[in-house]
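Schema walkthrough. Field components (list of strings):
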Amino acid sequence: MGKENIINADENDKGKKGPDFIRQIINRDLETGKNGTRVHTRFPPEPNGYLHIGHAKSICLNFGIAEDYEGGLYNLRFDDTNPEKEETEYVEAIKEDIKWLGFDWKDRLFFASDYFDKFYEFALELVNSGKAYVDSLPAEEIREYRGTPTKPGKNSPYRDRPIEENLEMLENMKNGKYKDGEHILRAKIDMSHVNMNMRDPAIYRIKNARHHRTGDKWHIYPMYDFAHGYEDAIEGITHSICTLEFENHRPLYDWFLNNVSAPCHPQQIEFARLNLSYTVMSKRLLLELVTSNLVDGWDDPRMPTISGFRRRGVTPTAIRKFAKEIGVSKVNSLIDMNFFYYIIREEMNETADRVMAVLDPLRVVITNYEEGKTEEFDADNNPQIEDGGTRKIPFSREIYIERDDFMEDAPKKFFRLAPGREVRLKHAYFLTCNDLIKDKEGNVTELHCTIDPETRGGNAPDGRKVKGTIHWVSAAHAIDAEVRLYDNLFTLEDMADMEEGKEYKDYLNPESEIILKNCKVEPSLAHAVPGAPYQFLRKGYFSADSKYHTREKPVFNRVVALKDSWAKLQKK
RNA sequence: AUCCCGAUGGUGUAAUUGGUAACACACCAGAUUCUGGUUCUGGCUUUGGGGGUUCAAGUCCUCCUCGGGAUGCCA
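Field assembly_structure (string):
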């Protein structure tokens, strides 16, 4: 049974890639029967901020692993051991984001605070076996006593406090008899250990603070290192997957489990957290962006948060695909944001309905088209899908085209509209520009063009070709819309490379959000709902903004631009 | 400085665990196209350095170099 459960390259990834190093470890454990046939993981967020794409990687890893193995289980556990930083608001937001990603933890929602009583029993065990003591040194002195990586620390004068006294003081700590920081419970390990984490680490600190779930019951709160392994053990976690910065803490994780009567001993495995170019993944910085109103909340479409990407129009499947494709390793790496954009495009190319929207309108009068006349064309919704269906597009004498689809002095390589040149209006007619009208400043304000009636539907009976096809909307039928173009939040590829003396705000991209208020979109977009992807033909993938979009005042966000080889050519 | 971890093309991840270094992205060139999108074809570039074991090393050993982490009563 366990053997059949083992993931190999063939079934996991169509023979392309072998299992990642974590799944290899699990495969081995299954072979040796280390945990029987069980595979049980968890995602343990601290409810002190919103989830970002880096958390999504971790969720997809942890929960994805459990889903991969027959009978695998995964828990959602809030690691709420620090009452001063955590809030219920975040708990709800985190649950919503994970659900949206498509994971269902069923009845396995837990809180570290549910285990506070058990933690206390474990602490008593440690005290009773002489492996923990109450220290009364002030924080600064504890720091001094700890030494440095090159100099060993020295024992606290309170290190050999009698067990009975420790017990009594711990009880008093618990009951709120002391002020914050007055005493601390520490593990008695080794003050000269080469691993600083092992130099008598803190177990309980006094915080006379109200906890979002346990209220005023506790006056002491457990430290991460002490609590985390117990949380895992209590839940029967088999593989406790965390990020690289906890590698130095693994000996501690194991020490705490080894020195009490823990129900089992999960294995901690570390992987490299996600770094994405042109953005930051630090909760502190993201919180700062929000509180200083540099962005429009945690779900600003420029934010690398799950809720930000959701509002922008990214789909959960794209995020999951991304998480899978970037892989897992122990190397600190920087993923190119363009790779994420590629994943989004790859999906939306298949799923997004094509529509026409003119972002920067230029009026075109078709001088040989009857005034007041309207006709309709059938337009395919998605050429990638066989039965993608069609919709009607109205056409009339005055239309809008994209301003940069016209050039007065056009180079040879420019395949779009220019005086005397002919292009195709997508789905409609061939169009030739005859005249242009300018304002006093010399800006082109209107084009006078003619269509070839013979080319109705988009093809010429005489077989002549046009180099360019452009999109358009009928002026009389267009819907006014606001369109927001989003781009990278920061201008620096690797935000870890910030120059000294500068702060991350110095690298904010002023063009990360461009709001266009005079856009003209085709009538079918009247039914757009947030989350549904559209391809604005030749422009990019867009979705209605979940915060501001209304039927009366449409607002569309650009999820990602289309590849643009003309723009690339121009740069040369 | 000490300890821990890591190093495979421009980027990210593989390599049947000692047996032809591959997949994707990016980039370049061309073809196709009623989206300068998509699709297709071709090209480019890789095992950080020295030494060793072996018939055979990206993989094992050793030294070096470089990068990251660790000196919270944060997680």
